[in-house]
Amino acid sequence: MIAGTDIDVDGLRSALLEVIAEERRVNAGESIRALHADDSSPHPASVPDLVVFPHTVAEVSAVLALANARGVAVTPFGMGTSTDGHVIPLRRGISLDLTEMDGVVRFRPEDQMITVGPGISRSAVNRRAGEHGLLFPVDPGADASIGGMVATNASGTTTVRYGNMRKQVLALQVVLADGTVVRTGSRALKSSAGYDLGQLFVGSEGTLGVIVEVTLRLYGIPEHTVAARAAFPDLDAACGAARALIGAGVLLSRMELLDAYCVQALNRFKDMTLPELPCLLLEFAGSREAVQADSRFAAEVAAEYGCAELELEADHTARVRLWQARHDLPPALAHLRPGSKLMTTDVCVPISELPAAVAAGRAAVERLKIVAGIVGHVGEGNYHITYAFDPDDPDEQDRAEILEAEVIEHALACGGTCSGEHGIGIGKIRHLATEHADLLPLMRGIKQQLDPNGILNPGKVFTA
Amino acid sequence: MIAGTDIDVDGLRSALLEVIAEERRVNAGESIRALHADDSSPHPASVPDLVVFPHTVAEVSAVLALANARGVAVTPFGMGTSTDGHVIPLRRGISLDLTEMDGVVRFRPEDQMITVGPGISRSAVNRRAGEHGLLFPVDPGADASIGGMVATNASGTTTVRYGNMRKQVLALQVVLADGTVVRTGSRALKSSAGYDLGQLFVGSEGTLGVIVEVTLRLYGIPEHTVAARAAFPDLDAACGAARALIGAGVLLSRMELLDAYCVQALNRFKDMTLPELPCLLLEFAGSREAVQADSRFAAEVAAEYGCAELELEADHTARVRLWQARHDLPPALAHLRPGSKLMTTDVCVPISELPAAVAAGRAAVERLKIVAGIVGHVGEGNYHITYAFDPDDPDEQDRAEILEAEVIEHALACGGTCSGEHGIGIGKIRHLATEHADLLPLMRGIKQQLDPNGILNPGKVFTA
């Protein structure tokens, strides 16, 4: 834990009020500060000295210039849904809440792109896109802010078809540590014009600059969409079917794995009656003819792995309910153990290694006597072990950490990565140091170049 | 033009022979050096002092360590098909020819990925992938080396479906200027583990490190593929149809625009009898049902823009012939003017701006009295004006440069980029400086960090 620096909060606040002349937006109130002290992770909270709510790029620039000159830490904050402590202001200072920069700056349906402020939620982007028959596909579950999703390179249920955030970002506007404003990318769908610095900011977790504007790709809403549930006799069969569907090149827009424990949790929490077996939730989208052909073929593949029937849901409401249930898994799992905190692993492995990796994860869960569900975006080999643990029980916390370390060790040994989509934050710093030991000096060098005073989200990604 | 440095070539050669104990592979022969003095562009040649042919990562590392210590420039060289001087050794020194590092290091069909040396050609990768029903989609026309395609972030006819090189690279092994070897990425299909330095090397044109190993995504060969030709009454109608097809979300795997002049050139060069009108060459791929539905729908859209008939080619040989004809356009255009050199623009604009951009390009060509064809990967808004000019006629050369500057100015004004896929090289340095003026200090800073002695491909991307 990085120690907080002693700063003159009153002096800082006065200086900030010269820039943002609205008391509410340069907020030292206890409750507001407490709301910016943690995220969805079990990492200990750290209360910022001030919470600043900018409205414009110019305000962000002025805040950073001021903080940089005084050596005050600045931690960007969106919806607070990060899962590994990303938005916890470890060195206190300023929590820069970007949720009031939530506008649509420019919507160009004819180019299938939209430019938004960083604080807009993904569901708001989708509502706006939908007015023109378009969709923004990335769906991490939580209704995260777009800025946060860029900062962690988020992905989710539709990544098997559309790719992660890295693939959706066409252009960024970023404020650097000293207040300089830069723009990356363009409105062209591709470019080979110099180093792609936009890609450097995607996934940088607020440590290289503050993202203040994002231009995203949008996609036509497919003519026809069908969701499907496929139950399997065991986890290995479900993983094998997932791997076979990918190998056969079936055009899936979603493929989620749930183990039997997750299905049980959903049945209880949502009052559903799904068969309590490991299952794949699938989605096919395209022309009606393509969807019919693909779902028929998928049923054949699933049958080879012991799936009795592919249950199709073409009705819009039923599909929304199905994916909402998937997204309700974290509360459903927490619900089974009142008073617990949730922790989740996030490894991604080569597809061929998925069945063995999931089996090893399941075995470790049982050996360590952890109450956990396994769920995953298995089309990319990304799966989560989500477990409810008692934060007041040191033994249970120890076992939770052993599980994460074992799962990551297994993933790295088979060519995978410690984080498929959640990012490094605080909790995976040591795992990143293992995975990319040779790259750490380069990462640190770039950090040093872009943020020489180390004010941007200190204590994340790597130690200072 | 950067002046060559005076180096002790004999001393350098002796030192290199300590590392690579094979005279042929540390080559000072005149003809070999001449073969490494230029590329496919009209930029003046510059002859390297030595051509080195490494066989292993360790050899590349040793060569770079040695060159770095002596301040000798190193310019990586693949197939020599770059179009803007990328491989011309402006400061002489070493041309590092990587074509003998052309092996398949690991092929993992079960994970749909392949790891190759940088010198392997894209066609060789495709042959190997095809043995397992897989394909490597990126198709820039020339049979370029994979290392070169990564270095320029190449794309081509299939980018509308599969994306450019940036989207295909899962992992890299790179030798830094001082000989340090680093690995980026993993065998997972996605990762949020720290800054994505792999993306920084993609498109860095040999200025940040030498790519010595590439892990690429592969894709299942679709069940059914149909190519189609659609002729239109004029260029504007063809562009409008392209834009409408993209807007309607038709799942195209290729969409190429050729103007009437290109069709004429092909008819003469390849003895074909295509209607001499602007046309779109399309390809649909997927399940048989999907292809039928998509091609039927595309025919309806094309008809709205005056296309009398979508001529389908399901036969494999006929399709190969069609795409080969597309790739033969540069020689076909050169053939119309014996003794000329070819130059090509490479802008990429937002899809909605494509019809106007192409019309403006066509108008500029006529005003400047340049003999040019317009061809493009219009699914992404990327089009090329390719023109044969007499390099000994200064007036013609001037007009050629005016054309490129005008086309780029127009693209930047409408939100596009100066290079969609060819890269900056020598010729677009000033245009990059216009497009990304605010990012240049960051790019230079990263270059300075990774290559403090400036030995890697000096004089490319930006001026020193």
Brief digest:
2 copies of one chain form a homodimer. With 464 residues, the first copy, chain A, is α+β, with helices and mostly antiparallel strands. Chain A is built from 17 helices and 18 strands.
Description:
The structure is a homodimer of 464-residue chains. The first copy, chain A, is an alpha+beta fold and 464 residues long. In chain A, 37% of the residues lie in helices and 20% in strands. The first copy, chain A, contains 17 helices and 18 strands. In chain A, strands 15-12-14-13-17-18-16 form a seven-stranded antiparallel beta sheet, with helices on both faces. A five-stranded antiparallel beta sheet of chain A has the order 5-6-10-8-9. In chain A, strand 5 and strand 6 form a beta hairpin. Chain A is globular, with a radius of gyration of 22 Å. The model of chain A has no long low-confidence stretch (mean pLDDT 95).
Name some characteristics of this structure:
homodimer; 464 residues; alpha+beta; five-stranded antiparallel beta sheet; 17 helices; 20% strand
* Average pLDDT over all residues of chain A: 95
Straight-line N-to-C gap of chain A: 11 Å
Shape of chain A: globular
Structural class of chain A: alpha+beta
Number of strands of chain A: 18
Gyration radius of chain A, in Å:
22 Å
Assembly context of the chains: homodimer
Instruction: Count up the helices of chain A.
Output: 17
Largest interface: A-B, 93 and 93 residues
Estimate what percentage of residues of chain A fall within beta strands: 15-25%
